[in-house]
Amino acid sequence: MTITTPLAALFGVTPAAWALIAVALAVGSLTLLIAWAKVQPLLAFVAAALIAALLLGVPLENIPKSIDKGIGDLLGSLIVIVCLGAVFGKLIADSGAAQRIASYLIGVFGSARMPVALTLTGFVAGIPLYYNVGFVLLVPLVFSLVYQSGRPAVALAIPLLAGLSIAHGFLPPHPSPTALVAQFHADMGRTLFYGLIVAVPTLIIAGPVFAMTLKRIEAAPAPMFRAGLRDESELPGVFNSFATALLPVWLLAAATGASMLPIADPALKSLVAFLANPMIVMLLALLVAVFTLGVARGQKLPVLMAGAQDALRDIAPILLVIAGAGALKQVLVDSGVSAQLGTQLGALPVPPLVLGWIVATLIRICLGSATVAGLTAAGIVAPVVQGSGIDPSLMVLAIGAGSLMCSHVNDSGFWMFKEYFGLSLKDTFRSWTLMETLVGVFGLIFVLILSAFLG
């Protein structure tokens, strides 16, 4: 489809060139509104969607319909999953299961292999915990180990935070990869399986291997960040903690495997499809966690639900970002520019997975937010996925890798790391920014290797 708008003729450019200009102006406006004017992301996305619609000649009466449809379609399939994931992660944190996982792994590996233990801690705990929750919960553990062992704080923290970051960017049920799965109509279980394959070697390189180069960086953590750990007697058991925290992974893996079996009985096939739905998986995981980590340990249900209220309040800003991204995506689709961009981008001498990674990286550098970068990039490259035959699960991972690239001064994670560890800007770039860049680069490399094996 070719974009036809009087503005193209007015400025003397071809419709194809005007489509690119219009999208660039819309994304540029989004960048300025969020990064410079500090506009709330939902409002910035809606404003960018309006700008794109007007520049692309969408009839005025259709613009509100496109925005409503985009928000409704994307949120409608995600809101329950994301909210259940938030409540589940909050319960893992509040119950002490995450701390138990950390202390057990550190005890098993011993002080000599402490970076390896912290790498596994960050990754395992990062699957159910949202990034900011995991950061605030587990960083005091790092400080405790620093004071006990005398090891450099940054060299111990980076493996743990690399695990958290990779889980946040690559693996459902985290909001960004879950939303990308919905945008690309990918399979949730397959994306999780591929994500684990890509995540492990990426984590080894960006975590314990890279941390070996950071031993000379000296941290000066503020005293307020050094406390927060529970007494061991208050924590749930090791098996209970691991089994419950990883339950969504086990359930998704089992459901995905069962759905691939040749099932002749229609009733059984329908049951398997029902149980394989990510919403049902997360609901079952949450119900089990409420019992095993709460009720079975003598906690009252109203107390547990108080934590759920906090989790839903914390997840609201992310849901608004997802909603805004849906609005911009739908305007691009309804205007016809999405299909046209797909044709133009698909003709570039760049593999589609690399293209998705590049777009996400550029937006990440401009905006700072990994979630915004991933969702915005998905709206731009979605037609490429449809026209190229690329496995959508791999595109989710490629964009996820790009969305983690080059964290710098416009990313809240950059400042959290700097302030918690009392680092200079130079040392923060040397440690945090470089770690995130390694995650993005090697994440893409291993996605491409996996793509080659899958054929």
Automatic annotation (TrEMBL):
The chain crosses the membrane at residues 16-35, 42-59, 71-89, 101-123, 129-147, 154-171, 191-214, 235-259, 271-295, 315-333, 353-382, 394-417, 437-454. Pfam families: GntP_permease. Keywords: Cell membrane, Membrane, Transmembrane, Transmembrane helix, Transport. One of its GO terms (molecular function) is gluconate transmembrane transporter activity. InterPro entries: Glcn_transporter. It is a multi-pass membrane protein. GO terms for cellular component: plasma membrane. It is found in: Cell membrane. PANTHER family: GNT FAMILY GLUCONATE TRANSPORTER (PTHR30354), HIGH-AFFINITY GLUCONATE TRANSPORTER (PTHR30354:SF22). NCBIfam families: gntP (TIGR00791). Belongs to the GntP permease family. This is Gluconate transporter.
